[in-house]
Amino acid sequence: MRVVLLMVTLLASAAFAADAKTKTTMRTALHSTLWLQPYLVSPAAFRDPANAPAIKGHLEVLANLEHHFATREKADAATRAIAGMLGAQVRRSLTDFNAGDPEPARARLRSLTSVCFACHSRDAVATDFDDTEKAVEALRLPPLRQAELYASTRQFDRAIAVWKDALARPAKTDAEWFEQTAALRQYLAVLVRVKDDKAGTAAAITEQAQRDGVPVFFQHLLDAWFTEVRVWNEDAFDARAATPLVLFKKGAALIADADLERQVVADERRFISMLRATAYLSAALERAPDATWRGEALFFLGVASAATQDPLLWNLDALFLETCVREQPHTRIARRCVTRLSERTWLRWTGSGGTDIPPEELRTLAWLRSLAAP
Fold first, then answer.
1. Are 154 and 123 spatial neighbours (Cβ–Cβ below 8 Å)?
2. What whole-number distance in Å separates Cα of residue 106 and Cα of residue 226?
3. pTM of the complete model beyond 0.85
4. Which domain of life is it from (predicted)?
5. 19: how many CB neighbours lie within 10 A of its CB?
6. Which residues is 350 bridged to in the sheet?
7. How many CA atoms lie less than 13 Å away from 294 in the CB half-sphere?
8. What is the DSSP string of 205-244?
9. What's the CA gap between 84 and 234, in Å, rounded?
């Protein structure tokens, strides 16, 4: 779940000489992003009126990034575009939150901050997260929410320990199985994308498959994912030793092998492969942010993210595709990105009652099409 230069941590490392004001602004923004995490994983805390003033204050800090980068002479067009996208998403969240509709705001913000943290998912834990344990205790989060919070703040070993224990507990209802399935996806994402751990991934899937009472839909997924792990285990590819270009090509090859570009509806059976693809593509962009194939990498990240994103999160794939258009205006790759985004938007807003796309979404699509046009 990430794309380099998409969110706060990305802007902090943008390709221009950061002045003192920029560094201070980014530090404040990162603090706000971190502060929001416990409330984003707790629906009750996010809805609590007592927390509303602080939540609004931190969202206003993040929304201000757009204004800051718009006034910095050394900020390049891509950085300004990304800051603009972040600001727009945060303002939409503020609008929903102020209108008394917190859940859409929370979903969108969870997507935004998950991308932000994932940009540096291989970094060591920073001192910014020293107070996370206190937040867990204060909010009395259930185990799966604890694991999500630890993962969102890059404390992956803690998250893995909590997931391993919580996912061994019996699920008594369909709702609990669904919640555990979503948690397993997060657990596997850390094992694949962060740890690059073939054996650990296989063990986690096997442990789930051997549980009593596994629903049929879950068992089918586990079988498909275990097959994917076997293929991965036979692959001698070494991501840590690969050059950015080789990483990009490998990620693109995995997507081509899954034939995902021609599928508007994501094939969850290829979940493990797509986790690998997004990991390789993200690492490639992180190591070579100015590569000539950057636009293609963003496109492929958008395609693959549809198969890897948490179903409870906002449309994370749309963020990647929109970034592609904003960064590569009036190019062929921008037109590929906006076409894919249009297909996914129609799918997202189509149900048994037909297609009902909100006017705001249609306006955004129209603007992006004009930005991508020759």
1. yes
2. 32
3. no
4. Bacteria
5. 12
6. 355
7. 21
8. HHHHHTSTT--HHHHHHHHHHHHHHHHHHT----TTTS-H
9. 43
How close are the terminal C-alpha atoms of the chain, in Å? 30
pLDDT tens string for the chain (374 positions)?
A: 333 223 433 344 333 345 566 667 667 776 787 778 778 878 888 999 999 999 998 888 888 776 565 555 444 555 565 666 677 778 888 888 988 888 888 888 876 665 554 444 444 344 455 555 666 666 677 888 888 778 777 788 988 999 999 999 988 888 888 889 988 998 999 999 889 999 999 999 999 999 988 888 889 999 999 999 999 999 999 999 999 999 999 999 999 998 888 877 777 889 999 999 989 998 898 888 889 999 999 999 888 888 786 654 556 688 789 889 988 999 999 999 999 999 888 887 787 677 788 888 899 899 999 999 99
φ, ψ dihedrals at 325, nearest 5° = -70, -45
Query: CA–CA separation, 291 vs 76, rounded Å?
Result: 15
Closest CA to 93 of 85, 101, 105: 105
AA identity, residue 143: P
CA atoms within 13 A on the CB side of 340: 32
88: tokens are: 């727009």
Give me the CATH code for the 126-195+197-233 domain, please: 1.25.40
| Side chain identity at residue 245, one-letter code | L
Tally of helices (H runs) and strands (E runs) in the chain: 19, 2
In what helix (H) or strand (E) does residue 11 lie, and over which residues does it extend?
A: helix 8-12
The tens digit of pLDDT for each residue in 279-301 reads 999 889 888 888 999 999 999 98
The CA-atom distances, in angstroms, between 4 and each of 9, 29, 70, 163, 370 are 9, 17, 20, 27, 24
Task: Locate the domains of the chain by residue range.
Answer: 1-120, 126-195+197-233, 239-374
Find where tokens 């037109």 sit.
335
Task: Determine contact, residues 312/287, Cβ cutoff 8 Å.
Answer: no
Neighbours of 17 (CB within 10 A): 7
Residue 188 CA to residue 239 CA, distance in Å, equals 17
What are the φ and ψ backbone dihedral angles of 372, each rounded to 5 degrees? -85, -20
